[in-house]
Design brief:
paralog of FGE (formylglycine-generating enzyme); 3-stranded antiparallel beta sheet; 15 strands
Length: 281
């Protein structure tokens, strides 16, 4: 009898432990950690304390923001800054199955500067000659513009769209990283992806705040090179392709450093950042 009671207790303990594991797993699947310290998950967005999610927008004055974001009465916004990348070579030879169609090659780029994150509505609104866009939170990345419009905004600051090689060098680094932050670790706290229909959230109709995934920063200090909005870059023939995946992406193959998509024009999931050539010494 004593042995039966002990066996029963062990079985009940094991079932309880299994139930706890399943509960945690279910919770992590349904509510994965994605918002950084300083922002709070509300639906598919990360809003600031003091804000509410209203019709897919974070509305109200921001009491605090995540690292790198500045609070204001209109919300959090990334303060534009540039990162200098020393020129070098990169051997592009992705070996995993999601790199189908990638050609092994070695590219070289000269030193240049590039925006630390995507161009925001606050920056676009400061351009007096740029087309007026629909009202949006100042910290959201600009979308719905084509590559030529993006190029014009960059030119006002002495820049241009990055070339495809520059963009890839920024994302992969000279070591050829699979993701901007490293070789592994595609999780919701590092990139704004899977926000429309999972795995990170559901119901999104647009991107997250630029710079709202500081855990996905590259070693050089660049944010949002994977996910949030795909970014225009110039191909050698002068055409433009969108790189890096977006908030709509669901699989790793769309979010790796070499990921690119052919795009014919403006889209709600495509934005941009600017690159700035450096004068030779």
């Amino acid at each position: 009898m004593r042995q039966q009671a002990l066996l029963g207790a062990l079985i009940l303990g094991a079932l309880a432990a299994l139930g706890a594991v399943l509960f945690v797993a279910r919770r992590e699947r349904s509510d994965p950690a994605r918002c950084p310290s300083g922002l709070v998950a509300q639906g598919f967005r990360c809003c600031a304390p003091g804000q509410s999610l209203v019709k897919h927008a974070c509305v109200g004055a921001a009491q605090s923001c995540a690292e790198g974001l500045t609070p204001s009465a209109e919300g959090c916004a990334f303060a534009p800054r540039r990162v200098r990348l020393e020129g070098g070579s990169l051997s592009v030879s992705p070996s995993d199955w999601e790199a189908e169609g990638q050609t092994a090659r070695t590219l070289s780029v000269a030193s240049f500067e590039i925006d630390a994150s995507e161009v925001t509505h606050a920056r676009w609104a400061a351009c007096s000659t740029c087309r007026k866009l629909p009202a949006a939170e100042p910290g959201l990345p600009v979308t719905g513009v084509d590559a030529d419009e993006a190029e014009k905004l960059c030119a006002l600051s002495g820049g241009r769209l990055p070339t495809a090689d520059e963009w890839l060098f920024a994302a992969a680094g000279p070591s050829g990283r699979r993701y901007p932050w490293g070789q592994t670790g595609l999780v919701c706290r590092r990139a704004s992806f899977g926000l429309v229909d999972g795995p990170c959230a559901a119901g999104a109709t647009g991107p997250e705040l630029a710079g709202a995934r500081p855990d996905g920063k590259s070693p050089e200090g660049l944010l949002d090179l994977s996910g949030n909005v795909a970014e225009w870059a110039r191909e050698p023939d002068g055409s433009a392709r969108a790189r890096g995946g977006s908030f709509r992406s669901r699989v790793a193959g769309e979010l790796k450093s070499w990921s690119a998509e052919a795009a014919t024009g403006p889209s709600s999931h495509i934005g941009f950042r600017c690159a700035y050539p450096l004068a030779p010494h």
